[in-house]
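Weekly sync, protein design subgroup
Attendees: M.S., D.O., the rotation student, P.L. (late)

Item 1: inverse folding check
M.S. brought a backbone from last month's batch and wanted to see whether the design step gives back something sensible before we order anything. D.O. pointed out we never logged the input encoding, so this time it goes straight into the notes. Structure tokens as presented (317 positions):
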């Protein structure tokens, strides 16, 4: 059994199409098909359900695919270990991040690449469920996500920061001048929030409910932080944001942030890796970078800057 055959199988499972898988592997379709048939013969199990087109993998094929990911990940880990011994880390770190933590990812990836110039980072925006699945299937080396997520399974957790929630509102809005606001007060404003399928929104809904608002009714909902900010620049809507989003998007002109009454700190966000040994060398290097970067302190400093009294629009020189 050749590693190349396993690479073909992984590509086929990803592309779900023989021609596209062959193109991704830079081989002809007959060559790819023949290699997978040879793999089936060597393992003495059917791997692919065949019809006029690719119809998926057999149960045995799904198990072979899991081992293929594992074997290829171990091969890559060996290469990375050897490259580090020869003169510096090389290879691609596969990093996943939930969309609401993606805004802080550069606080890790930039110093990581500066410290290891021969290394590269492949960063994917994923749901927490996909992160759990990809970690278990050896498709990710490490991920940035909520640490209290029960769906993560057996992982090792490294806390980075706690989400701190803020009202982002027009400077001339009714709550703009308050030193602190309650969740119940926010619910009466014209709101733009993340969609209910987003974990961040479900956390916020719990805080609204704890302050006597069983169901908040935003006028606009979106499944991305970028989509949310795109509406806020109009100067009409208010929103609840995580302080980590300030790193990427800041505070739009004509708006300000106001602290929320509770909680002072929200759920923990951090790095997770699969609970297996040895740890992928690139993942271990990112953890070392994270300890030196001190993401919590960097985000808190940024928050302090944005909470300072600002000159109202129209009074600026």
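Designed sequence read out in the meeting:
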């Amino acid at each position: 059994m050749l590693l190349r055959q396993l690479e073909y199988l992984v590509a086929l499972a990803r592309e779900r199409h023989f021609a596209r898988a062959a193109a991704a592997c830079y081989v002809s379709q007959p060559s790819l098909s023949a290699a997978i048939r040879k793999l089936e013969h060597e393992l003495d199990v059917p791997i692919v359900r065949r019809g006029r087109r690719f119809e998926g993998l057999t149960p045995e094929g799904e198990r072979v695919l899991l081992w293929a990911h594992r074997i290829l990940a171990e091969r890559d880990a060996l290469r990375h270990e050897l490259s580090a011994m020869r003169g510096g880390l090389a290879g691609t770190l596969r990093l996943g991040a939930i969309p609401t933590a993606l805004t802080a990812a550069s606080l890790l990836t930039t110093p990581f690449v500066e410290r290891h110039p021969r290394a590269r980072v492949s960063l994917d925006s994923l749901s927490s469920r996909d992160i759990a699945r990809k970690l278990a299937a050896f498709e990710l080396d490490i991920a940035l996500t909520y640490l209290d997520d029960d769906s993560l399974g057996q992982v090792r957790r490294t806390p980075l920061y706690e989400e701190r929630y803020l009202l982002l509102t027009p400077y001339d809005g009714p709550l703009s001048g308050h030193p602190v606001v309650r969740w119940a007060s926010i619910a009466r404003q014209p709101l733009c929030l993340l969609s209910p399928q987003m974990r961040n929104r479900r956390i916020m809904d719990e805080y609204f409910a704890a302050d006597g608002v069983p169901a908040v009714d935003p006028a606009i909902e979106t499944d991305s932080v970028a989509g949310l900010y795109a509406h806020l620049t109009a100067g009409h809507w208010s929103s609840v944001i995580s302080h980590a989003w300030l790193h990427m998007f800041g505070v739009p002109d004509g708006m300000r942030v106001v602290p929320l009454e509770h909680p002072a700190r929200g759920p923990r966000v951090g790095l997770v890796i699969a609970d297996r040994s040895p740890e992928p060398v690139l993942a271990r290097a990112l953890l070392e970078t994270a300890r030196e970067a001190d993401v919590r302190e960097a985000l808190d400093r940024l928050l302090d800057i944005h909470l300072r009294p600002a000159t109202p629009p129209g009074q600026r020189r």
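Discussion: The chain has a mean pLDDT of 88. The longest strand covers residues 155-162.
Action: P.L. to compare against the previous round before Friday.
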